[in-house]
Amino acid sequence: MTEHSVTGTVTAAERINNSADGNPRYSVTIACDDGFVRMYATAADAAVNFELPNYVANAKVKPVVTLRIGTRSTIESMTSTTGDRGQMIADATNARSKA
Predict the structure, then answer these.
(1) pLDDT (tens digit, 9 = 90+) per residue, 27-84?
(2) How far is 87 from 59, CA to CA, in rounded Å?
(3) Best exposed site among 32, 37, 50, 99 by fewest CB in 10 Å?
(4) Where are the beta strands (DSSP E) in 17-73?
């Protein structure tokens, strides 16, 4: 399969088994604009695994994102198309510091 992009609303993000190097991985459910709901796993050892919690953990609304899907049908990268990513990260950092 070739690389492609998918845009939609993140409806769920669940932690799955770590990569062989011990880095986190996630299963992401996305409701696409075409009416379909799709599930993808993040690629092993990809930076998106560390960005994803900041997008969804403390978001006041479900984030709309564009996912770049690699040749193995895994999420290689993610770009927010709504909201302020900097504010989402700040909110997540504040929530962690209060815990």
Answers:
(1) 999 999 888 999 999 998 988 888 887 777 666 677 788 888 888 889 888 887 765 5
(2) 9
(3) 99
(4) 25-32, 37-42, 64-69
pTM: 0.71
Contact predicate 42/48, CB 8 Å = yes
> Residue 8 is encoded by which pair of tokens?
């939609």
Instruction: Give the closest residue to 66 by CA, choosing from 82, 45, 44, 84.
Output: 82
- In total, the chain counts a number of residues equal to 99
Instruction: Output the CA torsion sign for 80, 86, 88, 93.
Output: positive
Please state, in angstroms and as integers, the Cα–Cα distance from residue 88 to each residue in 24, 52, 68, 71, following that order.
20, 11, 20, 29
- C-beta of residue 6 within 8 angstroms of C-beta of residue 80: no
Strand boundaries in 1-99, DSSP class E: 4-16, 25-32, 37-42, 64-69, 74-80
